[in-house]
UniProtKB/TrEMBL annotation, chain A:
Localization in the cell: Cytoplasm
Composition-biased stretches (Low complexity): 10-19, 43-65
Keywords: Cytoplasm, Developmental protein, Differentiation, Meiosis, RNA-binding, RNA-mediated gene silencing, Spermatogenesis, Translation regulation
Family label: Belongs to the argonaute family. Piwi subfamily.
Source species of the chain: Mesocricetus auratus
Domain Piwi, chain residue ranges per copy: 557-850
Predominant cellular place of this UniProt entry's protein: cytoplasm
Protein name listed in UniProt: Piwi-like protein 4 isoform X1
From TrEMBL, chain B:
GO terms of molecular function: metal ion binding; RNA binding; small RNA 2'-O-methyltransferase activity
Record keywords, A-Z: Magnesium, Metal-binding, Methyltransferase, RNA-binding, RNA-mediated gene silencing, S-adenosyl-L-methionine, Transferase
EC code: 2.1.1.386
Name of this chain's protein: Small RNA 2'-O-methyltransferase
Substrates-to-products reaction catalysed: small RNA 3'-end nucleotide + S-adenosyl-L-methionine = small RNA 3'-end 2'-O-methylnucleotide + S-adenosyl-L-homocysteine + H(+)
EC class (word): transferase
Cofactor(s) recorded in Swiss-Prot or TrEMBL: Mg(2+)
SUPFAM superfamilies for the chain: S-adenosyl-L-methionine-dependent methyltransferases
Keyword Methyltransferase on entry: yes
Similarity annotation: Belongs to the methyltransferase superfamily. HEN1 family.
Highest classification ranks of the organism: Eukaryota, Metazoa, Chordata, Craniata, Vertebrata
Length: 864, 402
């Protein structure tokens, strides 16, 4: 059964890898071997942790692990301030102050160009008295009390603290008022009449901006949200009592909020955004049965594993969620496990006794979940067995996400317009302010929760699109396809020696396609010659064989007309032509070519992609800086082997920023950080030198794919790699100046522009560099895309390293310009083009190729 | 289901501070009595067993404290009204949300409504909202009452509230010598009774308000000390006149002296919206199963006509591992209902067929109601007698594809 053990090991590593790179190094040293053997023997003492699946009774809260940082049912006194000993990862980032080292933005990081615009945000003021401080006390008991509950009860009932605002997790006490002495001794009496001495020692006085205070505020708000009858799942809060149902797909959407309290540019603010939790209205057992009917027995276990591992389930008998790490087919509900107290009981009897639940299917396997470690010293993750019949699936599985109709139905419900979003926010504020308990909680701490923050942003001027003999000012920057119709692209190679591989059925589509390609290619300046057509059987292997047979170094491009979107066609072709035999390739679905009335736009898109793949350039924007190299870096994990990190690196190699050097490196590392950046950048600089006979004077790198808590690693590990490449290449004389910008597409922040009383999406080119930003960073928000429906989400830029010393205004505008240069889309995109190229490249490699593409293609955008 | 009320005598050195001196050492030195499961759990289990046996609809726990017992009781499908009363308002405030429905209960709701309410108030005050209950529990409550309150207690609980059944538990003082501490088990206890004292009091009360009472307990004494009796003594009172309470209630004046601190209602199939959601969900699962079964049948038939050599044998239908097992009666009901059928690429499943499957049958809706509930969620045939779906959809997985 080594196969299963391997799967488990993988499951373990991904689980931790996805969460925190720090943990991973510890667990991956022994890739789950010890755990795997633990699992292999059913019903061993390890399994006693199943009891954990059980109650959230107070008596068990001390020993029972909870998969999430803060339990849903944590009670008032029981909240733990460090969230199970860990500081939240986004708060870790905040301790990395990069701005203080950047002299040119120390005093002001705001830009100036553009038209000022009033914006409403989803930030809410959280005011505190001027001299507000949080007093942190360490509490000891003599004799020592083991029970956290008892410790809390004893302290809370003490008259000295009775009417004070306090929060206590059993060891650390927070007060909003200072006690008279540094060390205070109290005496309490237990119910048994024992006298206990309680010693409170002041350990620190914290200003509201300190990380501990921030974490504390988050705890306060979590408590408030619970009072509003919302349930915490992960870090967000949901209202299952007001579900939106999509019955056709057996889905429920629970509305809720993602919230975060933190210190922004100048003050403490609450950030709240609407969020939906997707719930599948079926148990894991029902899902499995369905799958079994679908796939037949021969593939069943394999499919189960594939579809279920990694999903989050919710159990029926408590409010906990678990990640499925494995399925153990050898354990059945009739098997016994050892309870915490040592006695043995079968799963079936346990659920009957504990929860009055009768299991209907005694043949079901058990789901295995590894709990996040909660104690520092406890090296082995705890394991839990869950009964499929008692678990509900949350989120969408891969099968569902590839279902276009389903995703559309979900989007229809979750994609809120600015007006809808604003309504939800207003209602939330109203709920908090009207809830008496919430109000009292805030008041006792001196917090004043109130108004929605407005700020002033700027709309930077729109850009002109430069074509070969034409400059156009697009009517809408979101889509200039109409504006550039019949315009010549900057440069293109004629396509003369190429192949089309298709199956017999699709043969009749070819003539129409070729004629359309010629019709759109002519005006573009892209000449399409007649291809060699190869007909093959409708099998992935047949396509590959034909390609292997007919492709020679002389061939410029291979087009494949695929009969279906089955992954194996695409993957095998791309793998062969990107790496084994590097030739640009273009895959087209036969179905796409049969759409009536769409042919011209399909052909335009194909012609543009082929132009790029042959090394052509489509359009440009005005770049005032000469000799500037821009770079995009993205990182993701390989779809098949989660131990492999795919790093995409795409750098411009001409000063017009129209030609690119693309490189992708696979590295076997635990952390989501790149350690190949020196090689990549040196390669790019050599290319630049080859084309421009000089080195670029400036390099600006946009780094995407940075998770919460990784900022420090990027700064301390990746930036030095880049710097050393720059220094070595420049050989001291005139080394390029470097800037590194971290790009984040996903953030909680939203901006609305207001006309009259109607909120709407802010216009393209909106920049925000005050109030919603952070004092310790050189950062800004940029809206560079539109959302036809729904609310636009701004992209967040954080300049963590900057030798270039560009004015903030120039940095912002340059970033905006770069969002115009993605050749796969005739319009603006949400991130700078090099980031999107890097993303597209890593996606292709992680999903389809699984190895490094050949460097021979590095100067072609072969992955578009 | 009875969990063994075993008791364990653990060898353990007693920390000096907790030995308050006294006669325990004379009895069995260096030994501390630990119950397994813990005594409080045994008390709760006793109540749970009662609920299991008698299936009360309305249950109140007087002196509910941190609401632990209520939390255990809320899982019982028979209970529709669950009330907790306590004098400590802060405790009710901070524990209320433990009684809110589990997230899973929004996905698979209960059959019957359930409302949970916590009241702040004293058990010796009369509140008409507690009238007409099937079971009232007073677990370790009476020993906390001072003599005035204790005197008023029977009159309120037995006389005024007058539920069908009352459970009263209290420490058995005769057991105390086995503990290391001398006096009372809790600083707030006003008294601890011997068996004789409790039984005398209880019998008098029962007599006075026309109840019968049985005595039992939880927490058996260690071997050799059985004569002291249970650690916790319990009286179970049952009203002799049976269920006469309810008509009587309506004639009373509403008397609301308790303050409602927390109240929550559970989603249940009695609510139209919830019923619809569950019905459509179960129906779609069944439709999907039948559709796939039909597909498989067609495939097998094809294979019989044109057997390919080397083809894998899929005819061993996979339903042997997982899935519902029908009883004879269910099978008969399904077999006698109209069969699903195919017309071209459309697959029809008669509503009556669907209603025959146990998971839909148990929802107790008739064909007409079902039609109206599902009409805007699924596609019906022109005469509205059947659900129509495409026989094949693009996401069907074909094992042969690989």
């Amino acid at each position: 059964m080594s196969g299963r053990a391997r799967t488990r090991a993988r499951g373990i590593t991904t689980g931790y890898g996805a969460r925190s790179p720090g943990d991973l190094t510890a667990t991956s040293a022994t890739p789950g071997d010890s755990q795997a053997s633990g699992i292999a023997s059913p019903g061993d003492s390890q399994a006693s942790s199943i009891a954990a699946s059980g109650d959230s009774q107070a008596s068990s809260s001390r020993s029972i692990s909870q998969p999430h940082e803060v339990a849903v049912s944590s009670d008032d006194g029981g909240r733990s301030f460090t969230e199970r000993g860990k500081v939240r990862r986004d708060l870790v980032d905040l301790s990395v102050s990069t701005r203080e080292k950047l002299a040119h933005v120390k005093d002001c990081k705001a830009g100036s160009s553009g038209i000022p615009l009033r914006l409403v945000t989803n930030l809410f003021s959280l005011d505190l008295p001027q001299d507000w401080q949080l007093y942190q006390y360490h509490v000891t008991y003599s004799p020592d009390l083991a029970s956290k509950k008892l410790r809390i009860a004893l302290l809370y009932s003490h008259s000295k603290l009775l009417d004070k605002a306090k929060a206590f997790d059993g060891t650390i006490l927070f007060l909003s008022e200072k006690l008279d002495q540094k060390v205070t001794e109290l005496t309490g009496e237990t119910q048994r009449g024992e006298t206990v001495k309680i010693t409170l020692t002041l350990t620190s006085q914290l200003p509201s901006s300190s990380p501990v205070s921030i974490q504390f505020f988050n705890v306060i708000f979590r408590k408030i949200f619970k009072k509003l009858r919302m349930y915490q799942i992960g870090r967000n809060f949901y209202k299952p009592s007001e579900p939106v149902e999509i019955p056709q797909y057996k889905l429920s959407l629970w509305p809720g909020f993602a919230i975060s309290v933190s210190h922004f540019e100048s003050r403490l603010l609450l950030n709240a955004d609407v969020s939906y939790k997707v719930l599948r209205n079926e148990t894991v057992l029902e899902f499995m049965t369905d799958l079994c009917h679908r796939t037949g027995m021969s593939h069943f276990t394999e499919m189960c594993q594939k579809q279920l591992v990694g999903l989050i389930v919710l159990t029926r008998y408590n409010n906990k969620t678990y990640r499925i790490d494995d399925i153990d087919w050898s354990v059945k509900p009739t098997h016994a496990f050892q309870k915490r107290d040592g006695s043995e009981v079968t799963y079936m009897d346990y659920y009957k006794q504990q929860y009055n639940i009768t299991l209907s299917d005694l043949n079901q396997p058990v789901l295995v979940s590894l709990l996040k470690r909660k104690r520092k010293d406890n090296a082995e993750p705890q394991m839990v067995h869950l009964i499929p019949e008692l678990c509900f699936l949350t989120g969408l599985c891969s099968q569902a996400t590839s279902d276009f109709h389903l995703m559309k139905a979900v989007a229809e419900e979750t994609r809120l317009s600015p007006v809808g979003r604003q309504q939800q926010l207003v209602r939330l504020v109203d709920d908090i302010q009207r809830n008496q308990v919430a109000r009292i909680e805030l008041e006792t701490w001196g917090l004043q929760f109130g108004s929605q923050i407005s700020l002033t942003g700027r709309v930077v001027p729109s850009e002109k699109i430069l074509l070969l003999d034409h400059t156009c000012q697009p009517a809408s920057a979101a889509d200039w396809s109409k504006d550039m119709r019949a315009c010549k692209v900057l440069s293109s190679q004629p396509l003369n020696r190429w192949l089309i591989v298709c199956c017999n059925r699709a043969e009749n589509l070819i003539e129409a396609l070729l004629s359309c390609l010629r019709r759109v290619g002519g005006p573009m300046g892209f000449n399409v010659g007649y291809p060699k057509i190869i007909k093959v059987d409708e099998k992935a292997a047949a396509f590959l064989r034909a390609i292997q047979l007919h492709v020679n170094p002389d061939v410029q491009l291979v087009m494949c007309i695929l009969p279906s979107n089955a992954k194996n066609y695409y993957d095998s072709i791309k793998k062969y032509l990107s790496s084994d035999c590097p030739v640009p390739s273009q895959c087209v679905l036969a179905r796409t070519l049969t759409k009536q009335g769409m042919m011209m736009s399909v052909a335009t898109k194909i012609a543009m992609q082929m132009t790029c793949k042959l090394g052509g350039e489509l359009w440009a924007v005005e770049i005032p800086l000469k000799s500037l190299m821009v770079v995009g870096i993205d990182i993701c994990r390989d779809a098949l082997n989660k131990d492999v990190v795919v790093v995409g690196f795409v750098a411009s190699i001409n000063s017009r920023i129209t030609r690119w050097f693309s490189r992708c490196v696979l590295q076997r590392t635990a952390a989501d950080t790149a350690d190949c950046l020196k090689v990549c950048l040196t390669g790019a600089l050599n290319k630049w030198y080859k084309h421009n006979h000089d080195l670029p004077s400036r390099i600006i790198i946009y780094r995407d794919g940075v998770g919460d808590g990784q900022l420090k690693t990027v700064l301390e590990y990746e930036v030095p790699q880049l710097l050393s490449s720059v220094t070595e290449c420049g050989s001291g004389v005139s080394s390029s100046r470097l800037s590194v910008v971290v790009v984040r597409k996903r953030c909680l922040l939203r901006f609305f522009s207001e006309t009259g009383h109607i909120v709407q999406n802010p216009p393209i080119g909106t920049v925000v560099d005050s109030e919603a930003t952070r004092a310790e960073w050189y950062d800004f928000y940029l809206v560079s895309q539109t959302a036809n429906r729904g609310t636009v989400s701004p992209t967040y830029y954080n300049v963590i390293y900057d030798d270039n010393g560009l004015k903030p205004d120039h940095m912002q505008r340059l970033t905006f310009k770069l969002c115009h240069l993605y050749y796969n889309w005739q319009g603006l995109i949400s991130v700078p083009a090099p980031c999107q190229y890097a993303h597209k490249l890593t996606f292709l490699v992680a999903q389809s190729i699984h190895k490094e593409p050949s460097l021979e293609l590095a100067e072609n955008l072969f992955y578009l | 289901m009875e969990v063994g009320n075993k008791m364990e005598v653990a060898e353990k050195t007693i920390p000096c501070s907790s030995v308050a001196g006294g006669n325990f050492e004379e009895v069995c030195p260096e030994k501390v009595i630990r119950f397994k499961p813990p005594l409080y759990k045994q008390r709760y289990q006793f109540v749970r067993d009662l609920v299991d046996r008698h299936e009360p609809k309305k249950v109140a726990d007087l002196g509910c404290g941190d609401t632990k017992l209520l939390k255990l009781l809320k899982i019982y499908p028979c209970i529709q009204l669950l009330v907790g009363v306590d004098i400590n308002e802060e405790k009710l405030h901070s524990n209320g949300h433990h009684l809110s429905p589990y997230l899973g209960e929004f996905v698979k709701p209960r059959d019957l409504d359930l409302t949970v309410t916590l009241y702040h108030g004293s058990v010796v005050e009369r509140d008409s909202r507690l009238l007409g209950f099937d079971l009232i529990t007073c677990i370790e409550l009476i020993e906390h009452l001072n003599s005035d309150d204790l005197a008023r207690f029977p009159e309120v609980v037995f006389g005024y509230l007058s539920p069908s059944m009352i459970v009263i538990s209290t420490p058995n003082a005769e057991f105390n010598p086995l503990f290391p501490t001398v006096t009372l088990r809790d600083a707030d206890h006003k008294f601890e009774w011997s068996r004789m004292e409790f039984q005398t009091w209880a019998s008098q009360v029962a007599n006075c308000y026309d109840y019968c009472v049985e005595f039992t307990g939880v927490g058996t004494a260690p071997a050799g000390f059985e004569h002291v009796g249970y650690c916790t003594q319990i009286g179970v009172f049952r009203k002799n006149s049976g269920k006469l309470a309810e008509p009587f209630v309506s004639q009373q004046h509403d008397q609301h002296v308790y303050k409602a601190v927390y109240t929550t209602s559970y989603p249940s199939l009695q609510q139209e919206k919830v019923l619809k959601f569950v019905l459509v969900g179960e129906l779609l699962i069944q439709v999907e199963r039948l559709r796939l079964r039909h597909q498989r049948m067609l495939r097998e038939r094809e294979k019989e006509l044109d057997p390919k050599p080397g083809d894998m044998d899929f005819s061993q239908a996979p339903h042997l591992l997982l899935g519902e097992v029908f009883t004879e009666a269910e099978k008969a009901r399904i077999d006698s209902s109209p069969q699903p059928f195919c017309e071209g690429e459309k697959f029809y499943i008669p509503l009556r067929r669907l209603l025959a499957y146990p998971k839909l049958h148990r929802l107790c809706v008739d064909e007409e109601r079902m039609r109206s509930l599902i009409a805007d969620s699924v596609c019906l045939s022109s005469d509205s007698s059947a659900v129509v779906v495409d026989l094949h959809n693009s996401w069907d997985y074909w094992p042969e594809d690989n």
